[in-house]
Fold each of these.
Amino acid sequence: MTVPAAEPEGPQARSPHPAPDASEETYDLVVIGAGPAGLTAAVTAAELGLTVALVDSAARPGGQYDRHPAPTLSAGRPPAPHHDRAPFADLRRRLAASRTTTCLTEHHVWSVIRESDGTWTAHAVTGADGTDGRPARTRGRALLLATGAHERHLPFPGWTLPGVVAAGGAQAMLSAGLVLPGRRVVVAGSGPLLLAVAASLAAAGARIPAVVEAAGYLRYARTPRTLAANPRKAAEALTYGAALLRHRVPLHPRSAVTRVHGTERVEAVTVTRLDRDWRPLPGTGRRIACDALAVGHGLVPQIELATAVGCATRTLADGTRGLALGAHQETSVPGLWAAGEAGGVGGAELARTEGEMAARAIAARLLGRRADPERTALLRRRRDRLRAFADAMAAAHAPGPGWTGWLTDDTDVCRCEEVTAGRVREAVTGLGARDPRTVKLLTRAGMGWCQGRMCGTAVACLTSRGAPAPPPPDRRLLAVPVPLSALAAGEPRGTGLPAVREGLESPAAPLPPADPRPAGPPGRPEAPPARHPHRRSTP
Ligand SMILES: Cc1cc2nc3c(=O)[nH]c(=O)nc-3n(C[C@H](O)[C@H](O)[C@H](O)COP(=O)(O)OP(=O)(O)OC[C@H]3O[C@@H](n4cnc5c(N)ncnc54)[C@H](O)[C@@H]3O)c2cc1C
């Protein structure tokens, strides 16, 4: 939907060239993702003189960090606000003031295509969940991907019981739905998100019997200069730490939830101490009563739209893949930029910084003007400093190879297709599978609705049997599930599935207006994926 101008607190949608169907316009810039990165990029680009379409699948801009209660709940603000809301208030004010930004919410982008004239088309389905809406096209001279990240899940016995929720999901339930996942909630997994989630749940009235962190915090001490250069990050951690102390929440580092107990739903969890490779230490298991478990093992950049058009990726410090980006946030594909967690997980401030950098580079290119050198230099220093911290954080919380020791043979690894760890192991040891793709063909792991987003990491780790796990294949034809009717509806104008195939297989198209100022070389790219996408079975 296009957000109505009269929506209280929300952005105002004003088309730069009023027309009944926004998809017919060619904007200067199409931004996909309205989290801190995309929102910052959109308002900056508009203030620099570009027409912008800001596209997001959610009902309101804000992304992961700035979630709001659903309008039907009549709540003014989230119950447990983050400490850093001022920048978001500023972004919302600038968005509302913009006369050249069109905000297209509830648009689920399933593919982006570079046209033969060098412009970009984003194909989306509309509606709250994207399955009942109409298809929509949005065209732009440049495209910025700010699609954020999704949570990484490592399975363990009992993880499919009702009452086990994702850590970010628990926060979203609270912020957007004003509900708690339970009354006694254990928060577990790895990464700084756990502290934020536990603090929010405790502030909203939940009892938190334990926060269980698989990594050890001492690993941060290996990068003292990076820590010293980022005092705000330490302050953030202290704020959450103080909140946990106030609510008497015990923190268990180097430990993991290795089993969930219960028949109908969660009744308790077993927390086990880990060695430095995340192997469970025998005899250290302790049962903790609870009625919910919020669990997450870090975040994985959401890069499907980019890799589908051949963007190069790089392996991040925690073994996940992010986009390989140049000095001005450009991807390896001309005319396509990225900002925020798509290039590596690093927090809201880094996302905003990269969003502004990308917008300035795009405006310079499209308008044929030189970007403000002082502002660019300042942003670049800030980005590099925050990226260094993000890398240290990713290294500190990278899953150790021993985590697969938590799995029993009957633990579901792929919950969509109900494939157990035993079946994956059998495919590797008994049938000779050497890579996750072969395991998938032999077992159906990763062929369900989520298309491997949930089980991809686990299958890769089980396949590699303790060796560093190769990241799962990250090239897919459709970034989100799309009804066939939406594909068929695009057919007459040359969109739809055949055009998707065309877009993937056609040789590189020319760029729109040339940039007088060379943008820096792409940073440390790995070989781009093969031009032909991995064939994936549809759900
Ligand atoms: C519970 C929680 C607590 C956090 N606490 C902190 C904190 O204390 N400090 C901190 O610095 N950071 C924190 N973070 C991290 C912070 O939220 C992220 O770093 C930040 O939101 C990243 O911004 P982004 O713009 O890159 O991505 P996001 O905010 O994730 O935004 C991405 C947007 O893209 C949209 N999108 C994705 N794919 C598509 C598609 N195909 N079609 C259409 N739209 C799409 C999504 O709907 C989303 O709105 C927290 C995150 C969570 C979940």
Amino acid sequence: MLAVPDWPGHRAGQHVDVRLTADDGYQTQRSYSIASAPSSDQRIALTVERLDDGEVSPYLAGELHAGDKLELRGPIGGYFVWEAALGGPLLLVAGGKAEQDERYHKTIRESVDALLGAVSEADRILLIMKEVEGLSLKELEKIYKVNENALKVRLFRARQRVLKAFGAAEKKEDAG
Ligand SMILES: Cc1cc2nc3c(=O)[nH]c(=O)nc-3n(C[C@H](O)[C@H](O)[C@H](O)COP(=O)(O)OP(=O)(O)OC[C@H]3O[C@@H](n4cnc5c(N)ncnc54)[C@H](O)[C@@H]3O)c2cc1C
């Protein structure tokens, strides 16, 4: 929570830039969304996720103490803030990253299924156990009762056959 004298107030969705200055004059700044609701008490809250290897967030989330001073610029942004007073129709568009991810994963799933469908059942089972289920060569040795080298050869050949099927599918797509 920061006390900001002369804070002009803010609207939902706006952020501030926090600038830090080191003793040697080095400066760096980062943006943080204002996490508190608009109010007139000249105080704002920021929620900072600490990135252990980050430059600024470990300082803000761990080293900053009550009474320390920060340089703030803001509130910034407002281009995407709607207010009731603006009136007019409001179009809400649903869908976004989750749907995009789902579509992307579906395409990948279908492509992988199609490729695995292009090789023998024996190859398919071996590849799924190794690449999807994550079984180790030691575990596969026990299942297949062959030594590691023989398994590596089988896996190599199975992967080659999948790659061949992939190449053939790509060629077909280019031609179509
Ligand atoms: C509008 C806006 C609002 C934001 N609101 C918030 C908020 O509310 N809360 C919040 O926690 N954050 C917010 N952020 C993010 C915030 O501004 C910082 O980016 C974040 O805190 C990380 O800063 P840092 O200095 O700790 O990390 P940085 O030092 O900037 O590093 C970030 C990551 O990038 C990696 N990295 C740095 N340099 C390189 C490089 N050269 N090559 C490869 N990797 C590198 C680091 O290892 C680290 O993992 C917001 C950003 C924007 C733009």
